[in-house]
Write a structure and sequence with these properties.
The structure is a single chain. By secondary structure, the protein is an alpha/beta fold. It has 2 domains: 84 residues, no CATH class; 231 residues, Type I PLP-dependent aspartate aminotransferase-like (Major domain) (Aspartate Aminotransferase, domain 2, 3-Layer(aba) Sandwich). The protein is 44% helix and 9% strand. Strand 6, helix 6 and strand 7 form a beta-alpha-beta unit. Helix 3 crosses helix 9 and helix 10 packs parallel to helix 14. The chain is globular, with a radius of gyration of 21 Å.
Length: 355
Amino acid sequence: MYASKISDVEGLIRQQDEWRNRCINLIASENVMSRRARACAGSDFAHRYAEGHPGERYYRGTTYIDMIENQLTANLRVLFECDHCEVRPISGTNANEAVFSRFVKPGDVVMVNSTPGGGHISHHRMGSLGKFTRNIIDFPLTRDGYHIDVEKAAYLIEKARPKLIVVGKSLFLFPEPVQELAEVCRHTHTLLMYDGAHVLGLIAGKQFQNPIKEGAFLVTGSTHKTFYGSQRGLILSSMDEEPWRKIDRGAEYHLAVGVELAYVDDLAVRKLRLDLLDPPLGEALLLAGGVILGVFLEIAMGSGLGNRRGDLRTHHGLEVGQFLAKPFRSAGGEGYFVHVCASRFFKRFRRRCCR
């Protein structure tokens, strides 16, 4: 009886694999891990603990994960051109919460992108940020209802004096005005956080803005969107050592007492594979997203969203459909565009959509 039930579950897993291998995934927050990285998820690390830092663990038997984590953090600091890297959060939302838990107190004012303007739910009262303060205000937007109105935002920052502002979105079509807002934040002693979950691979591939160099206090992100892999979170910064120790404590004690080691080692493999891609990851994402976006905008004529602001320089090629063509949702679940290499996408696109 029990053997039969286990077989049923295994059968459903096989069906999932077969189905995903023959369809186009149009969910922008998902990606496809390489077989080499997926193989790491079934290693002995899958059932081991490694609390603490390399060389300072609370458990024994961590020699090899210490080596992997040290190599991983060193490589990521080089890749993202920053001084600090935290790899223990289990998702981008958990990375956000690690930051909020250390820098936001009850009653603090925090300024974020609204959800209608593309902001992520973890930045709001019903999400992670709402656990620490209810005093959350939205960025003023331009007339298109999407872009931050920099002049009005600067005025509001001066008047409200927020403890933290959070830029970055779930619907991430254009770079954020980090440099312009950072100048105001320095004057008001406001921390600028950049949620790069959806564009982390583009940042790594040098095909997007560099938020830390533009003035962001820190960057959070997830590793399963444009940074193609399993669900993990990152925190990146070049802040001083003292505030970084707050992040360290937030990541360790608030969220990640038991780190999923199997996903740390597959993240290490994925970072090294980024160096081997031809074309590089960022270029491949923009190639696929940009060409499909051009077709889509031709279908949904009249918005001029891309023309007014220049090229849509992110992976969210068909995600513009959230604004432009709601009927397309019935064809693709939510109208999102998966981050896949252009050749693989177009081959399947032609076979399934253009016959």
